[in-house]
Amino acid sequence: MGDNFQSLQYFLPEIVIMITVLFMIVSDLIPSLKHHSFNISLFGMCLSGLVLFMLGYSNQPIFNGMLYDDQFSFYFKNIILLSTFSIILVSKYSDELDDEYRIEYNTLLMIVLLGMFLMTSSVNLVMIYISLELVSIPSYILAGILKNDKKSNEASLKYVIFGSFASGLMLFGFSWLYGISGSTNIYEVYSSVVLLENNSMALMSLLFILVGFGYKVSMVPFHYWTPDVYEGSPITITAFLSVAPKAAGFALFLRTFFVLFTDTGTFNANEPVLNLNWPEIMAWLSAATMTVGNLLALRQDNVKRMLAYSTISHVGFMLMAFCTLNVEAIAGIMFYLLMYSFMNLGAFYMIVFMSNKFNAENVDDWNGVGFKNSLLSAFMVISLVSLAGLPPTSGFIGKVYLFRSLFYDKEFFWLAIIGILNSVVSLYYYFRIVKAMYFVKAENDDKISAHPIVHWSIILFSSQNILFYIYWSPLYEYLIRMF
Fold first, then answer.
1. Are 132 and 216 in contact, with CB atoms under 8 Å apart?
2. Domain boundaries in the chain?
3. How much is the pTM?
4. Beta bridge partners of 316
């Protein structure tokens, strides 16, 4: 009991989020407080961020080893908190959302935020499952929050079906690990796994767990839900799902696999456990993920659906580093996730602007926008160039470090070639939007402007793509020192 009480001091950011959720639920019941829910959510996140910054990290297990409060989770929590804060802020100025459901919308996002915080710190099989479901269940509702939109309803239903199936298989894999070890703590499970004489049980549990995590990060062949859910969801939820849960998913993915299925049971691993050649499996899945994502994106006219396949391809690039067991690979993935958050959110906030002004859905709806708002269009180009991985943007630096992990270990050169070819393919569909903006004339050249919050959100997030190209080394050095 004493350990749990002592753990509370390291759990304060999550406690602040829980209290904020409770306040928002209460505000929905009191008519005079209803219009304050937006401010309550922003204040709660700011307070949680302040507490997180002041406390830092303790580098020790909390709540009897259910969670681990370390620098690794601290880094991901900052990415997740920033992404969620910006989503709630911009969502207020999206015309797509019905004001009737604003409180429920913000409350569900805060619950997902709590789940993602837990995902980054979970080191217990039960807590891993609970945190995943705490993210998934509210996300199902958020995807279908446009009640009168058939596509939104379809998105929610598909999300639930695929999510339930993936969770069931993942739980089956967890049950095998519990049967092997008699424990749910992943460090204790590892101690039992390394003693196995036959690696077949470890391999089966690995494959089942890979299904659950692969679904969460949209890895091929568990990606089928992604395009439909992204297209049917509100734009702000699509932006959110493409960034924050992906970061949390990779945090959980990295910690679980490096602890359970490597020779040392830590991030400083060199070989897979019991000679399970799962890095080879990850390499083939990486190649399939980036290739399927890019090739199917070529055929899309709907911009949200196009960026959904783009997200799948970026997951493939990050998995490319995953298959090399070294700290440079982990640092490369963490570095790229931050860069990706900025470039993707900048692009999606421009889509929010276009939806507000023109109800734009397809690439053709972007015709001539470059002349209607030249400033925001220029920043959209920067985000698209960064997503394509071209210099002078942070996307280029991020991809360099993902490829570096392959060359560092002097293996999987074939995967690096596939990655380079996929980068070339992605140029086509990203620049389709640029072409529509600048090289196709619109019916009129009337100037348009965005709400100041949307306007500055696009500028701030997109400008980081240039900033981190110029000044990126301190961040990477910080990540390397983490391990």
1. yes
2. 277-483
3. 0.93
4. none
